[in-house]
Amino acid sequence: MTDLASFERIVTSFVDDYDFRRGILIMERGDELVEVSVTATPKGITVTRDGGALPATEWIYKDLAKLELLARRIVDLVHPPEHFVSPRGKLVDGVDVDPDGTERTIDDACGTLRNVLGRPLAGTTSVLYLTSEAGEGKTSLIEQVAVQQAEAYLKKKADWLLLPVPLGGRPFLRLDDAIVAAYVNRLKFPYWYYGGFIELVRLGAIVPAFDGFEDMIADSRSQAARSAFKHLIGELESQGSILVAARRAFVDLSFGSQADLWKAESPGQDVQLRRLALNRWDKSVFLRYARKRQVILPEALYEDVTEQLRTPKHPVLTRAVLVRRLIDVALEENDLSAFLARISEDQTNYFYEFVESIVRREVEYKWHDLSGDKNARLLSLEQHHQLLSMLAGEMWLCSVEMLGREMLDMVVEIFAEDQDLPPSVAWQVRERIGDHALLHVQRENRRDTVEFDHDDFRLFYLGQTLGHALVNADATSVEQILDTKTLTAPAIAEATRLVRQARPTAAREVLDLLDETLKYASQVSYLRENAGMLLLSLLDNLGIGHTIRRGTFGLDSLAGRSFSGLVVKDSSFAATRLKDTQLHRCTFSRCRFERLVIDEPRDIQHTELNECQLDSIAIGQSGGEMRSYFDTADIRWQLNHHGFSLGAQGQDEDAAETPSGTISSWI
C-alpha cells in the first residue's frame, strides 16, 4: 500500500477516534489506546509498533482487522455437515476467463468455488451466484469452503476468508445489520464496524457469502432489499468479490432481465457476473458419501434403492438431506424394504412418506415407556407429529430456527396438558425430546438449544401446523402464521396436502377463509402473499372456478400448475414461468406481472389478460436462449401469438387498486 490517504481512510473505519500527526498515529478503540509510527516511502507504507515493523496491509490484517482471530472463530464456530462430499455443478465463468460465457461441467464444486473467488479481477466487483434447488447443499458448501479457507489462512496458504452471512428465515430489516450480526453474534467477533467490513471486502481480504438471498428479496418488501444491495455494490467501488447463494429459479428469472440490480447508481461502476449451479447428486456422489459413512457394499445399496423407487432421479437418491437420512436408516437396520415401500407408494407425496417412515421408526423402536412395560410406546405416531408441529409453530411465530431449553420445556408442558399425559410420561418426553431423529441439540452461548435436523423438516411441520389450523377453521391461528413472514414452498405444499386429504368440503371452506383474509389484508403485509400463494396451491388441479382478489404471488407462482376457470383481479405477480402450466378459461384483470416467461411445454386456452401491466416478457425454450421484450407493442404481439386474448386497454374506475410501481406496459 503506497497511498497514505487510503491508509488513513481504512484506519478510521475501524477505530472510535484517532489523531495522525508527524508520522504518529494514536487510535482509540473501545477502552484501548494504541500508538504506532507510520513511515511512507515510494516502496510502500510501513507501520511500527513495539519495535516491530510491518507493511501497512499486513498490519491492517493482523492488528487492526484481527483476521487470524476471525479465522480461528470460523474454524471453531462454523460446522459444515459431517462426512461432507463436494457436489458436481456447472460454471459460467467471468469474461476474463471465458469471454463467450460458456457453461462447463465441474466435478468439484468446493474446489471450484475457492478457485473462482480467489482470483478477483482488478477494477471490478465480482459477483458469483451459487444456485441450486432448495435443500441441495448451498449452505453446506458455503460452510465447508469457509472452514477450509480459514484453515488455509491460519497455515499462511491463503490470503482471504469467506464470511457466511445468513439472510434466510427472517424478515428483512437492514442489510448492514445482517452483515454485522454474522460476525458479531455468530462468530463472537466484535472488532469491526460496518465500514471496516466494507474496506476489507474492497481489499479482497474478506468475501461475504450471502446465503438465502431469495428469501430476503423476493417478497412484497423487496424494493428496500434491492436498494440495499445496489448501495452495497456502490460502496465497493469496482473492487472486491461477493458470493450470492439463491435458488436456481430466482436467479434464472429475476436476474435475467435485471442486470441493473448490481449496477451502482454512480457512473463508472464495473460489475462482473459469474454463476456456479450445483447439480443434484448422481450415483458417483451418492457412492462417495456412502463410503465416507462406511456403508458395506454401497453399490448394492444404490441399486436396491433405485430398483425400489423405480428411478435414479428420485429425490431420496439426489437430495443431500434425504440421502443422509436414508444412509442413517441403512446403517441401523438390514432390511430397508418396508421403509422404501412407503416412500415409493406415492411419488407426489414422497416427502410426507419419508418423514412418516422416520417418525414411525421412532415410535416403534426407540420411544418406549421406561416407567412401566418396556414394550409400551411412549407416544403414538399422531402425538409425535403433534409435538413436532408445536415446536415448528413456536419457532415460526418467534422468528427463530431453534428453541432454548426454557422455551422447549414450556412447549412440552403445553403438549402434555393437551394430551393429558401422566406425569411419568411427560417427564420422559421432556428429557428425550432432544434425541428425536428429526431434531438436533447444539451448544449456543453456553446453553443448549434444539433445532430441527434440517430446515426442510421444520418447514414440513410448519405446514402441518398451518394445515390443521385451516381445516379446523382456526382463523386466529391462520392469521398469526400467515402474517409472520413469507412462507416457503415446502410449508405451503404440506398445508395443501393436509387440506386435500380432509373432509370433501374442507377445500371450499378453506378457500372462503383465505378469501376473507385477503379482503382486509394491507398491501404490504405478509398476509397478502402467503394467502395468495396458498390459494393458488389449493386451486392447482382442483378443477373448480374461483376468483382471487388483491393477492400477491411470489416467484414462479404459475409454473407447473393447472387452473380452470380461475379469475385473478387487482393482484401482483413476481417473475414467473409458464413451463408445464395449464390455463383454461382463466382471466387476469388489472394485474401486474414483473416478468412473464413463456416457455415450453404449456397449454393456454381461452385465457384473457384484461388491463394488466407487464414489465417484461421472455420467449424461448427453458434451458436455452430466451428473448426478452419490453416495448408495449412487442409484448402485445407476442402475447397474442402465444395463446392469450387481450381485453380492453386503459384503466377503468377500479384501476386505483392496481399494485403500485412504474408503469411500463398496460395490456
Molecular structure report:
By secondary structure, this protein is α/β, with parallel strands linked by helices. Helix content is 43%, strand content 21%. It is built from 25 helices and 31 strands. The strands form seven sheets. Strands 7-6-12-8-11-10-9 form a seven-stranded mixed β-sheet, sandwiched between helices. The protein has a five-stranded antiparallel β-sheet with strand order 1-2-3-4-5. Strand 14 (439-444) and strand 15 (447-452) form a beta hairpin. Helix 17 packs across helix 20 (455-471) and helix 22 packs across helix 24 (526-539). The protein is globular and about 85 Å long. Residues 255-261 and 649-664 have low confidence and may be disordered.
Low-confidence stretches: 255-261, 649-664
Please indicate the percent range of residues in DSSP E strands (runs of 2 or more).
Answer: 15-25%
Task: Specify the overall morphology.
Answer: globular
Mean of pLDDT: 84
Secondary structure class reads alpha/beta
Query: Strands across the major sheet, in which order?
Result: 7-6-12-8-11-10-9
Q: Span from first to last CA?
A: 57 Å
Write the layout of secondary structure elements.
Layout: H1 4-12, E1 17-21, E2 24-29, E3 32-41, E4 44-49, E5 52-55, H2 56-64, H3 67-77, E6 89-92, E7 103-106, H4 109-117, E8 125-132, H5 138-154, E9 161-166, H6 175-186, H7 194-203, E10 206-211, H8 213-217, H9 222-236, E11 241-247, H10 248-254, E12 271-278, H11 283-292, H12 298-309, H13 315-318, H14 320-332, H15 337-345, H16 350-366, H17 381-397, E13 402-404, H18 405-419, H19 423-432, E14 439-444, E15 447-452, H20 455-471, H21 475-482, H22 489-501, H23 506-519, H24 526-539, E16 546-549, E17 552-553, E18 562-564, E19 566-569, E20 572-573, E21 576-577, E22 581-584, E23 587-589, E24 592-593, E25 596-598, E26 602-605, E27 607-610, E28 613-614, E29 617-620, E30 626-629, H25 632-641, E31 644-646
